[in-house]
Amino acid sequence: MTDNIHRLPDRKTALPMLSTGELDLWSLPERLDDTALAAVEAVAKEPLPSLPSCAETHLAKCLRIMLAVLPKQNTDELGGELFVEAYKRQIGHYPNEAISYLADRATACCRWFPTIAECLEILSVWKRSDEATRRQTQARFLLSRERNLRWIGDCEPIELAPPITQAEVDRMTPEMIKIGLGCGALERDHDGNIRPASDHP
Hints:
Layout: H1 2-6, H2 34-45, H3 56-69, H4 80-91, H5 96-109, H6 116-123, H7 131-154, H8 166-170, H9 174-183, E1 186-188, E2 194-196
Antiparallel strand pairs: 1-2
Helix pairs in contact: 2-7, 3-5
């Protein structure tokens, strides 16, 4: 069973090359042939499409929600349309999802209506989680897993060093003996003699 996990699929049965948009990343086999791997890598490296800027109506709605819950520290601040315009100029380029996140975090964590600088600090934590980012995350996972499995399959088995003999111990310098005692390869018996550790290969 273990051998099957690390065996590369037969190149004769390689999947046909699909466009990155057609590739179903969640139904691919556990091991990827070169064709599938190339398609997955293309998705992983493809730049994410830009999200549209927040709709003015959505921004105004989120600001009203925050104003309804959070008092202003400075009652002399701009009000009405000028107030919305000032915030729009600084945070209006964020997508709807980010502005919704801002409203949720501000009403849950802030005691006062956040300044523009505080809004930008909250927005710096927001991470987009749309279909494009989920596809890219899955593609990067599949790409990393397949590369790791291929690397494991290409590695030569490590041969263990032969057991240390007493003759070899007797020829060791004091520095080597100190290292051997420190790593557990050597041990000192009741009479103070140095010998290979009994539980060391």
